Each structure stands twice: as structure tokens, then as C-alpha cells.
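In response to the reviewer comment on reproducibility (Comment 2.3), we provide here a single inverse folding case reported in full, input and output, so that an independent group could reproduce the run without further information from us. The C-alpha cells appear first.
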């Protein structure tokens, strides 16, 4: 299906794909990326970042950065997530990513069924990260970036296992939270974290 839509996604020379990662974790920012691919430099193997190995994601991320017409990565912080909720923070991160693109896009395709409130001509594409190459590229950049941030947080906050679970609510993460407590990078509005804070 990806190849079937390849020509459609290149109708505009400055068509951007946008995706975010990190809605579900209990810790860390939500990260979004925006990518304008070059129709003259097609990148093979683009697909939903979750369906790629770590090594393949990293390889593709390097290719995307080297060959795309434009790309950007942005985030919404843990404080913003707690203040405006995770959905609105995700939309904010996507808005920031598109605003940071150079050149600015003529049209934007966004993964999912919701669009940020912005001035861009755009369309939401359900499962776009597996249907539209530019969205797939954005999902890869966002995933690689956020994973690297969580690996760095693992060094800053040892014992929580951030490098392994990337902030998601695994059994090991929940056990660490109960034993070690809540860190400044945990999302206090999320139920498991809120429960631990309430018990303190």
C-alpha cells in the first residue's frame, strides 16, 4: 500500500508528513517530527517505526536526515502534558514540528484522526505511518529521537529502566516507581503516577 500512495503523497513539492510518539508512557516528553521527502531521492523501506528493528530505524533516520528536502523534530514537555493533557500536548508537538520546517510545507498529512489548530492546508490520515511515506519518515525520526532521550534519562535516573521500556508502564517500571518514587520526568497526571503520589 505504501508504494501505491507514493505518487499521491508527492502531488505537492512541499508536502509534509507528521507523526508523534510517546502518548502512552508514564515518563518523558511527547515527541513529534515533520518531514518533506524529496521525490528525486526516494528512500526504500519506509514504514511504521514500530514495525522496524532498532538498527533499521536508526539507519533510515540517517537517510531521511541526509536526503529529505526538510525535516524537524519538536516536543511538548512533561509539564505541558500534565497541564493540557496528552492529546493536546501531542497536537502541540506536531504544530511545533511543522512550524520549524524549512522550507514551510504547502500541504500537511498528519497521522491519526485529529489535526492541530493551525493555518496549514492539511489532512488527517488514519494509520498514515503505514500508508504515506512522509508520515512513515516522520514516525521514524520521532521514535529514534525519543528513544535516545529516554536512554539519556536512564543515566540521569538509574534504576527505573528507562533505556529498556522507554517510559512505558511495564511491570519493571511500575515496581521501580513504587520502590524509588516519582522523578521530575514522570507525568503526574497519569493514573499510575498519580496513585503513587496520593499514597505518599
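Designed residues, in position order:
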Amino acid at each position: 500500500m505504501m508504494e501505491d500512495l507514493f505518487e499521491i503523497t508527492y502531488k505537492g513539492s512541499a508536502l509534509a508528513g507528521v507523526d508523534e510518539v510517546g502518548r502512552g508512557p508514564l515518563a518523558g516528553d511527547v515527541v513529534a517530527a515533520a518531514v518533506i521527502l524529496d521525490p528525486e531521492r526516494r528512500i526504500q523501506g519506509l514504514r511504521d517505526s514500530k514495525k522496524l528493528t532498532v538498527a533499521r530505524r536508526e539507519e533510515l533516520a540517517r537517510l531521511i536526515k541526509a536526503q529529505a528536502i526538510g525535516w524537524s523534530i519538536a516536543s511538548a514537555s512533561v509539564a505541558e502534558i500534565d497541564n493540557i493533557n496528552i492529546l493536546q500536548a501531542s497536537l502541540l508537538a506536531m504544530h511545533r514540528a511543522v512550524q520549524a520546517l524549512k522550507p514551510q510545507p504547502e500541504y500537511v498529512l498528519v497521522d491519526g484522526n485529529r489535526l492541530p489548530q493551525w493555518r496549514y492546508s492539511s489532512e488527517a490520515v488514519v494509520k498514515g505511518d503505514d500508508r504515506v511515506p512522509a508520515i512513515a519518515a516522520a514516525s521514524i525520526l520521532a521514535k529514534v529521537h525519543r528513544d535516545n532521550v529516554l536512554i539519556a534519562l536512564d543515566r540521569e535516573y538509574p534504576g527505573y529502566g528507562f533505556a529498556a521500556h522507554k517510559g512505558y508502564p511495564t511491570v519493571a517500571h511500575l515496581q521501580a516507581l513504587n520502590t524509588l518514587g516519582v522523578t521530575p520526568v514522570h507525568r503526574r497526571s497519569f493514573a499510575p503516577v498519580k496513585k503513587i503520589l496520593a499514597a505518599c
